[in-house]
Amino acid sequence: MLCRHRQNLSTRREWLKTASCGFGGLALAGLLGQEQASGGASAHPLAEKQPHFTPKAKRIVFIFLQGGPSQVDLFDYKPELVKRHGEQPPFAADSRFKQVGMQNTKLLKPVTKLNRVGESGMWMSEQLPYLAKQADKLCMLKACETDTPAHPTAVQQIHTGSPTLVRPSAGAWINYGLGTENQNLPGFVTIHPTSEQGGPRNYGGAFLPAAYQGTPVFDGKIEHLESRGLPAGLQQRQLDYLLKMNRDHLGSAGGDDGLDAMIRSYELAFRMQAEAPEVLDISNESQATKKLYGVGEKGTDEMGQRMLLARRMVEAGVRFVQVTDAGWDHHGRIAKQLPQNCYGIDRPIAGFLQDLESRGLLEDTLVLCSGEFGRTPFDQDLSGGKAPPNNYGRGHHSLAYACFFAGGGVKGDMSYGVTDDFGYRGVAEKVHLHDIHATMLHQLGLDHERLTYRYAGRDFRLTDVYGRVIKEILA
User: Fold this and answer.
1) Which of 49, 244, 335, 368 sits a CA distance of 20 to 30 A from 357?
2) pTM of this prediction?
3) Which domain of life is it from (predicted)?
4) Residues 188, 370: Cα–Cα separation, whole Å
């Protein structure tokens, strides 16, 4: 069965190489040559485009830790928080984010031990021993801020730049601005995206042409990609006929972005059937590589497979890859649950960075690892005083959280940003989420103020009317 599948893939590749017209003949040379020659709106939307200026990175990998990792337990050590553990917070709650029961809360010291790592001595939890060994690659931002402490709006903002309005995702903007390096794969892939807090909206294209939206991958598969066993030649005839019908309908309808995107999705799907199965198949990776990521081992297998798949996507030329790991919303039992979460991602992410570097890919791949916000430096008791203190957790916190960049022309072994003595507010070198997005685009050679799309009478952009490039962290 497997041999027959591989033989069909081989036949399909030959069709892509030799056919010069028709649906199956939408090989890169034929499709782009025909469409770019006519210019204007007919140009293929995913054709590779020139950036505004010379880029430092060609692609981005966004590792999203959904729920809000605790910065004071992982990356931002505060001796005063240890010293005054159990006391009432000596600072007033920010008027924008007052929380019910704040008058009864107590300062909560770190639930993990933090150590100095790397030559710069950045702080990192002992629960991340593998990542600590990659400190020379990390640029830690410790005074990050976003606009909302609620999951639905904060998750949407880190993905789209807007906490409430329907806007294109960051991956869609980058797809729109640069196109894709590999015309046989999507330019934007999201691995195991969450179905909650926005769901498809977090990788959607909103008002951008639908071709730029993300393609979700679940359990190592792209849904509905299989050819259902049709020989390549027969499938080409079938799709050629479908293409003609859809093109005729598109002409009579006077232009329809949704229909045009559907037609192009069929075109891309045919090409993907030749290349995507091999990219998605991690079985031929060496045992040493799988061990590096923790694949096949308890606690690290799921994230290990996702990160290994992300590396394969990067190698294959996918422009924007997102990997999601959920479960970081520690309102209770943080002392037990946080180490479990750390164990699940530590080896896979560290292995990914090490693997990228060994293959010469880290230099032009920008990696961002972040949650939608952080956690409060004081405790949260959801039991109403009935639970013992070791069952406490932390609330949502958007005024100061930590994330890190790696590769892609960003300085390594560096910490940027200072918070107050309790990790509650940024006091120096503060960065907003808009600044992070602006910096991501900048490293790809895109000016966040120039990457715009006119819709409903005005120009929109990922950073709205805000944002600055964090030049201090650029190599």
Assistant:
1) 49
2) 0.87
3) Bacteria
4) 18
